[in-house]
Amino acid sequence: MQKKTAFPWVITSLRIGITPFALWSLSIGNSVLFLTLFLFALITDLSDGLVARKLNSASRKGAYFDAIADFVLISGVFLIYAIQGLYPIWILAVLVVSFTQFMVTSVSEIQIYDPVGKYFGGLLYVTIIVISTFPIVALYSFPYK
Fold first, then answer.
1. What 8-state DSSP symbol labels residue 29?
2. Residues 36, 28: contact at Cβ < 8 Å?
3. What is the pLDDT of residue 145?
4. Sequence-distant contacts of 40-43: CB under 8 A, at least 24 apart
């Protein structure tokens, strides 16, 4: 029996480790540093699952750890967007409800891979990149005032 490696967990841990720095750079308006760190986070998100499957180390705990790392980063970004007035706070509430629903329903599911969650997460990553590159777009996208 092949021993499972912790390398995918290290990759995910890198994403968690840079999250405070990414959020700080976004909050002070350093978009170049933020986008650099965020793209690094995106690369770690794409590679941890791939590496886990390649090394036969995929696990339910690893999938949850990956989802938590994504949630912390993405919800932190949208919290800062809400504070900056780029998005209404209810967008963050939708993210929290979606993540909670994923965690609750995945306890009873056998399937580790969630294609809908991957597409939704991908959409959120793309949204963050677009808004961080062109922040004025968000101001006209949500008429909430």
1. T
2. no
3. 46
4. 40/14, 41/15, 41/73, 42/125
Return the pLDDT at 69: 92
Q: Supply angle C-alpha 130, 33, 124, rounded to 5.
A: 30
Among 48, 49, 22, smallest CA distance to 128 is for 22
Grouped pLDDT means (10 residues each) for the chain, 145 residues? 74 94 95 94 90 84 86 93 86 86 69 64 84 66 50
For the chain, domain boundaries? 7-141
64-103 exposure pattern, b = at least 16 Cβ within 10 A, e = fewer? ebbbebbbbbbbbbbbbbbeeebbeeebbeebeebbeebe
The rounded distance, in Å, linking the Cα atoms of 102 and 87 is: 23
Token output for 91:
């967008």
Contact 54, 78 (CB under 8 A): no
Classify residue 140 by burial, with Cβ atoms within 10 Å: 0-12, 13-18, 19+: exposed
Structure tokens, 107: 């306890």
Provide φ and ψ at 75, rounded to 5°.
Answer: -70, -35
